[in-house]
Amino acid sequence: MRTETVAESRAAKTLREIFESGRPLTYVHSTEEQRVAGVLSALGARLAPPAPVWTWSLTEGLSRDGGQPEANSCDPRAVLDFIIEHPHTAIFHLKDFHEPLRESAEIRRRLRDVAESCLDRRKYVVVSSAVRAIPDELDRSFVFVELRPPDLVELVQFLRDEGVKADDAVLHQFSRALQGLTTDEARYAMRRALAANPDLGPGAVPALLEEKRLLVSRGGVIEYISGATRIDEVGGLQNLKKWLLERRKLFEMRDTLSAEIVPKGLLMMGIPGCGKSLCVKAIASHFELPLYRLDMIEIFSGRHGKPEGVFVACCKMMEDMAPAVLWFDEIEMGITSTESSGEQGRIFAFFLTWMQEKTRGLFVAATANRLDLLPAEMIRKGRFDEVFFVDLPVEEERMEIFRIHLDRRGEDSSRFNIAQLMEFTVGWTGAEIEQCVVSAITRARLADREITDQDLVSTAVSIVPLSRTMKEQINHIREWAFERAVRATPRAMG
């Protein structure tokens, strides 16, 4: 029997269930020794009867609950003999015991004796190591646990243990900002936040997120995207906006809905420069979630190891970051093959399964330009909640985009005759409209005067749009997407 607690962390629950099953040997793969020790100590106190934690290391020997080490207990064989002879309930935490196991057949044999002697005697042996190294003859004797980063329950308790004095709402806000980090990384982030905001009010969250951005981005594959983009800063695309407004409510209710109803994500395909990347940023802002970008080209660069392993590790890491939005940028550059053999085929197979089974707090936003490279299985209904085609903006959308970019740069859009620009901007992308505004403002600033309608017209007539220089490719994209995707714009281009 165990005493009930109000909240139990994921790590504590996993180990408790292993202990309750009667398994005597557990191998915890983690670099966080102190965290493992803390989880075991808290778990031991909750067991009935309580179980003291004996900790062993090759350098310090064996000690109980942080007390003085036992005499002559540094020897690995001696600690195993001690465990066998110990008559009472206890948890034995063996640090880096993979080395003695790997080097000594005698130790491997004796640990099998330990497993037999501890069975059904409420004695539990936990080997923790940063290296996964279980000898073949002990593989079936151990329960292997990959310790994931701390969850919200554990992070809230961590903040309390660190002396953070704040109400529950602020503690949960901090904890959500720290999700995905180890406890050591969370400690460094908190110190940065304290330096920026000694009172640790809500204003400290940006400092936490900045430290998290640095920690997450250090690998070079996943990038934390900071800076909010409001959904009203995206011109046009009313079908897409309506869809997002409807799905936000379902996503917020994800813990009370069946998995098949909770939004999993969307795929946006279309013409370069028409706002797909901006839409992803707006999704994260609209859902009030952090945004992470997964660079498919970097994954296949070879600089981070085998692409298959890197891709799988990144997807699992992002589940620990949830709730969040994960952006697969140019997804067609990495997931283009359905062949059963080869790395791309295995990545594709993993991705399809992962999309169905991933945690419901992770919303996937994928963007693609080369539509013909996407496998048919990728865009069929059920993989993503919806597949949108982002076309060249129609006239009303071009006018809205002009207003957005003028207002964003401190210019009053109402004083410009934007309608007269429409005849010069047929077939323009949103990116070309933005460049027109920037170039016109630059021209006016160089002349040390206010921007005028003539600056916009003169700049517009000098720009050759992508739809003219790549007419055949754009027509091909439109024809390909016509029956395969939902238009992000309500009506066709006039």
Describe the structure.
With 494 residues, the chain is of the alpha/beta class. The chain has four domains: 10-146, P-loop containing nucleotide triphosphate hydrolases (Rossmann fold, 3-Layer(aba) Sandwich); 152-215; 247-387, P-loop containing nucleotide triphosphate hydrolases (Rossmann fold, 3-Layer(aba) Sandwich), CATH 3.40.50.300; 395-463, Orthogonal Bundle (Helicase, Ruva Protein, domain 3). Helix content is 45%, strand content 13%. It has 20 helices and 13 strands. The protein has helices at residues 10-20, 33-46, 76-85, 98-103, 105-118, 152-161, 168-178, 183-196, 205-217, 238-252, 276-287, 296-299, 307-321, 343-357, 376-379, 395-408, 430-446, 453-462, 466-469, 471-481, and strands at 25-29, 53-57, 61-64, 90-95, 123-129, 143-146, 222-225, 265-270, 291-295, 324-329, 362-368, 386-390, 486-487. The strands form two sheets. Strands 7-9-10-11-8-12-13 form a seven-stranded mixed sheet. Strands 3-2-4-5-1-6 form a six-stranded mixed sheet, covered by helices on one side. Residues 1-5 have low confidence and may be disordered.
List keywords for this structure.
494 residues, alpha/beta, Rossmann fold, 4 domains, seven-stranded mixed β-sheet, six-stranded mixed β-sheet, disordered N terminus
Question: How are the elements arranged and paired?
Answer:
Layout lengths: L9 H11 L4 E5 L3 H14 L6 E5 L3 E4 L11 H10 L4 E6 L2 H6 L1 H14 L4 E7 L13 E4 L5 H10 L6 H11 L4 H14 L8 H13 L4 E4 L12 H15 L12 E6 L5 H12 L3 E5 H4 L7 H15 L2 E6 L13 H15 L4 E7 L7 H4 L6 E5 L4 H14 L21 H17 L6 H10 L3 H4 L1 H11 L4 E2 L7
Parallel strand pairs: 1-5, 1-6, 2-4, 4-5, 8-11, 8-12, 9-10, 10-11, 12-13
Antiparallel strand pairs: 2-3, 7-9
